[in-house]
Amino acid sequence: MDIEGVLAIIFLFGGGTLFLLAISPIGRAFADRIRAKGQGDVRSELVEHKAALEQQLEAVRREVAELAERVDFAERLLTKQREGQRIGPG
């Protein structure tokens, strides 16, 4: 038997064994574990991104609240000024 025949037998049996391993529960578990490693990085990035967005959202909420207070103050000043003009000097 020559080397090419031995290699052909190894490829046939090895390939068949790998195929059966791939469709077996062990192969599926191994594939799921590989997928989970790749998604773990994505998940951690998403968690970090979510935390950053929540911080930015909280900052925007504070700014909007501050602007609302300023608008209320300005409206009160304008109301007082208009009331003073309506009454007029005594």
What would your notes on this structure say?
The chain is 93% helix and 0% strand. It has two helices and no strands. The protein is rod-shaped and about 115 Å long. Helix 1 (3-23) packs across helix 2 (25-87). The chain has one domain. The relative contact order is 0.04. It is mainly α and 90 residues long. The chain has helices spanning 3-23, 25-87. The mean pLDDT is 84.
SSE order and pairing:
Blueprint: H1 3-23, H2 25-87
Helix pairs in contact: 1-2
Radius of gyration: 36 Å
Q: Main beta sheet, described?
A: none
Shape: rod-shaped
Low-confidence stretches: none
Mean pLDDT: 84
Domain count: the total is 1
Number of helices: 2
Give the % helix.
over 70%
N-to-C span: 124 Å
The SSE order reads: HH
Please indicate the percent range of residues in DSSP E strands (runs of 2 or more).
under 5%
- SS-based structural class? mainly alpha
Overall number of strands: 0
Briefly characterize the structure.
This protein is 93% helix and 0% strand. With 90 residues, it is an all-alpha fold. The longest helix is centred in the middle third of the chain and has 63 residues, at 25-87.
Looking at this protein, list some descriptive labels:
90 residues; mainly alpha; 2 helices
